[in-house]
Amino acid sequence: MRKYSLKEEIAEGFKTRIIGFLLSIFGFWMFNYLSGAGFLYYHYIIFGMVCAAGILFSPLYYVFKSYDKILHFLSPFLLCFIIFFMMDKLQEAMYIKIFLTLTTAVLCITGMEVGEYIIDKALGWELQGVYVRNRSGILKLEVIQDKIDDAMQDILFGIAGCILFVLIKVLI
């Protein structure tokens, strides 16, 4: 196996992150196009911010250990804005729309964690757990939080982000 220099490793990691980011934005656009959801420009900005934080800026995992938990709090919070936009079109009472937004977001959070588990088992990608990483953010060097603890905390931080959205919607 060829050993990469740090410069090659960073360049390869950057290309991978750019491709992942662009595919995510394209997937969001495709969902909007096929479903007729009617997302507005600010929904693309919100989704782009989530993707940028999670994909493009993933080397920050190396620099800042709490970056993972911040993302698992903020991403569902922002996701709730997109979900609520779809739920707001329903002819239901506000509390039903908020409840559906919350439950859909929690379902997405849980589904992502289950997806990480399945990918880890099938492909060995080590998506679950918190690791000390190399500078590119790709190679995982040492586990600093167990996989099950990471998954449960990710779900709890995600639910907390969703609850913050609900509180804002109720109070404003």
Largest beta sheet: what is the strand line-up? 1-2
Q: How would the global form be characterised? A: globular
The helicity comes to over 70%
* Low-pLDDT runs: none
The sequence of SSEs as H and E is HHHHHEEH
Specify the biggest β-sheet: 2 strands, antiparallel
Number of strands: 2
Q: Counting H and I runs of at least 4 residues, what is the number of helices?
A: 6
Q: Percent of residues in beta strands? A: 5-15%
Distance between the termini: 57 Å
Keywords:
mainly alpha; single chain; 172 residues; two-stranded antiparallel sheet
Protein architecture, described:
With 172 residues, the protein is mainly alpha-helical. Helices cover 73% and strands 6% of the residues. It contains six helices and two strands, in the order αααααββα. It has a two-stranded antiparallel ribbon with strand order 1-2. β1 and β2 form a beta hairpin. The radius of gyration is 18 Å and the shape is globular. The termini are far apart. The model has no long low-confidence stretch (mean pLDDT 88).
What's the arrangement of secondary structure elements?
Elements (H helix, E strand, L loop, with lengths): L5 H30 L5 H16 L3 H4 L3 H21 L6 H30 L6 E4 L6 E6 L1 H25 L1
